Amino acid sequence: MIGAILGDVVGSIYEFDNIKTKEFELFDKECFFTDDSVMTIAIAEALMQTENINKDNLEDFKEHLITVMHEIGIKYPDCGYSGHFLVWILRNKREPYNSFGNGSAMRISPVGFLAQSEEEVIDWSTKVTEVTHNHPEGIKG
What we know:
Blueprint: H1 2-11, H2 35-49, H3 59-73, H4 83-90, H5 103-106, H6 111-114, H7 118-129, H8 136-140
């Protein structure tokens, strides 16, 4: 999770201006955290707040996760959300919007702290992803 956030910050200045060299400053004064870090923290927060999760019925957890994503996400509206995700956050939507983008993959690292096996990582990753990215390609990512 820390590595994901560090990578987000280091890469923030290159997201729309790619470079093709390995020679660059890791932490430029222009670096910043993006929506990927904000949502990574939101997922970690939701997982830490959840006690005795019933792994057979995760609907309550999903509702809690959506609430936490909205609560934290609304505090950082200008950190780089895609258009559909920003609408999802700002309008406090509860339903997924069939995204097939990579945003869900960028925020999933906290699941590794909860899961006890590779199978659980896949299962939890799917559950966390499908609250917004319910398109098969979004889940696959």
